[in-house]
Amino acid sequence: MFFPKFRVYYLVLTLYIYFSLFDRFYVVFPVKEIIKKSVQAKIEDRRYLLTVAMESPLQKRLLERLLSFEKKDLQICDVVLLPDFFVDHFLSLQNIETLNTTVRSVVAHGGGNITGIPQQIQQGGNAANTALALARLGMTSHLICRTSLFGYHLLQFFLGRYGVDLSGVKIDGDLAITTALEFQADHANVMLGDPGSVATFQFEALTEHDLERIAHAQLVGVTNWNLNRYGTSLAEQVFEYAKQHNVKTFFDSGDPTPRLHDIPEMINKVLTNSNLDIFGLNENELQQYSNNSYTTQEEMIQAAKNFKRKIPARVDFHTSQFSCSIQRTTTIIPTIPQPRVIRFTGAGDAWNAANLFADLLNFADDERLLFANIFAGMYISSPEPIHPTIDMVINSIKKTL
Length: 401
Hints:
Number of domains: 2
Number of strands: 14
CATH class of the largest domain: Alpha Beta
Low-confidence stretches: 1-55
Strand content: 15-25%
């Protein structure tokens, strides 16, 4: 008779073989001590439903793949991102109740100072963050956007020094600024923004130099549709041009809540268009596009699969608990819990960058998702708001094996 813990091993192995053979739906949780953790009363958590081996073959396979690349080979991968750069001003707050009480008290006394609020200024914007993360990973990234002269100097400081090509930045516009209220206890952030020239960026703003960059890239990504009133036409035209030159395409709309009435047109012209290869989104965005509410992870995954049936593009779906890629098959990789989360803003951009990096290098789906999960996890838990390098990811994986 099997001892209880061996029953767990046997169940895990059986499920893994079953799902792998049918190649339809599999979950891998790449943590060395997962079996031990499962036996210690965590098996009931749905994130630990299916795990693979104590020594984590997936992590080893990912590590071997990362070690097989020469850094100089990564630089031949050109990625173009557009059209947004923001200056992000972060305020670290405990919770909404405390802030509300404090602000009301100050206002009741006619105004005054609220001191002791940790604050930070850094680069922001989906395109800028993704371009920076890809540059940190060793790829050649290009940012196309419109900002002010002051914004351009900030771009040189935040992105240019890490190798992001800024030759496509136009400096005759207005700086976009976001103030992000990060509530630590609630694990949520509220962003107050002025989109500046991001709100009016059109395809006609692209120069011959910009079009040449896109034509010679391996991938072009259009982001921040939600804050660009011309976002639908921009994405539609950029992707049409890219496909004329056999360039892979990526789209991340951002939170569509401000433009709910524009969603049907965008779905019709961008998401259902065969020119789009990869659509990246999070759980909030999925809820808006699928018109479904859900309370469990299973319902969330089913909603994503149902939505995928409506569009030809691959759906890459990321949450704080798992990531999922849906094309002909569905691959799900739970995230690795971080002992300390320092920031929430930018996590999706970090995940997207790593996901695209792995896609361009032809990682297997499970390797790609695991790499993106690890990369994003390292970013949100880093003391400094800068993305890890490929060597840092490699060293992090080595420590877990």
